[in-house]
Amino acid sequence: MPQTLNVLLAQLSPRLRRTEANLENMEGLIAGHPGADLAVFPELFLSGYTTSGLEDLAVDPEGPEITRLAKAARDYSTAVIVGAPERFGGGHANSAFYIGRDGEAAGIYRKTHLFGSERGAFVRGDELLVVDLDGLRAGLMICFDVEFPEVARSLARAGVDLLVTISANMEPFERDHHVFAVARALENGLPHLYVNQIGPGEEFTFTGGTMAVSADGDLLAEAGPSEEVLSLKLELPAKSSVRPDYMGQTRPPLPVAGDVTPAPEGHRRG
Fold first, then answer.
1. Which one in 34, 88, 94, 175 has a CA-CA gap of 20 to 30 Å to 245?
2. Which residues does the chain have with pLDDT short of 50?
3. Does 52 reside within a domain?
4. Quick one: pLDDT at residue 17?
């Protein structure tokens, strides 16, 4: 049976290295929207986006920060997705924490595709994650992950009803993520929630562009060029009524004919 999901998408600028202030901001927003079923916050929101000094900023799954968010989730029956640096694997992971409406910390996704200086700061995750939203299934991604079609396609093949990306996308890549966020929805026939930071940070200026995209690639909601919290209703599960069933028509990897000699180093991008 279709379900209505009341969603908050928080396009905010976190206080850098001020976890307490960011927690208070989250608690206030959740308390101020008691009808929300799900609140989504950007990548590394608890700490602000940084790849340095992580030992002082990283959280533990059973630590006081997640415990406080779990209480807010339980008190207001609002599931929460938020990014934070996590102590993991003898180092730190760039993680998305999922807390259910009952206050249970029900999943942690660790970013699998690290960008730039993240590669020297974080332990790379090695598996994707699907979480339960009151019987609906959501697949989580973090920022750079959305630029790789294989990530969203793997989640779609796992049977998710919804794609969710939390991000700290920066200048000059605003257009990239607008295109990728819409494409991931359209090519998989799934709604997509994309939530980004906004404004100046420690090293980068973050570009916003928070949006909710339908299974047909239409914008259901889109934030402006400043801090904004979007509130919308999603009817799930939602599939395209006009486009082909891509999932049912994909084929295994095909052989490549012709000149398959690798291009010279100077002709490769990146």
1. 175
2. 268-270
3. yes
4. 97
Tell me, what CATH number does 122's domain have? 3.60.110.10
The answer as to whether 261 is a domain residue is no
Q: Is residue 259 part of a domain?
A: no
Q: What are φ and ψ of residue 158, in 5° steps?
A: -80, -5
Instruction: Write out the catalytic residue numbers.
Output: 43, 111, 143
Q: What is the pLDDT of residue 246?
A: 82
Q: Model pTM greater than 0.90?
A: yes
Residue 269's pLDDT is 40
